[in-house]
Specification:
Elements: H1 3-8, E1 12-17, H2 20-30, E2 36-39, H3 45-56, E3 62-66, E4 78-84
Parallel strand pairs: 1-3, 1-4, 2-3
Amino acid sequence: MRWWQVYGGEGKTIVFTQTKRDADDVALALGRTVGCEALHGDITQNQREKTLAAFREGRFSVLVATDVAARGLDIPNVDLVSVCFQVQIA
């Protein structure tokens, strides 16, 4: 069983990352086993809107977004929010 299924059930999950590359990498890795898409500033506005609409409609269950791209998101019925940040120790 996967962590998002254990904690989020079969519903919607949003994973936040710090960078666009992290969002792409996490979405690619998760996308091998679950419906997943990335959302960040390098994606065109038109594609971001399509991705958000598809997530709201339940066409895929995991959205991976940068913390900046996620500002102002209004998505109802999200069951799990995960933060995937690397901590750098000085």
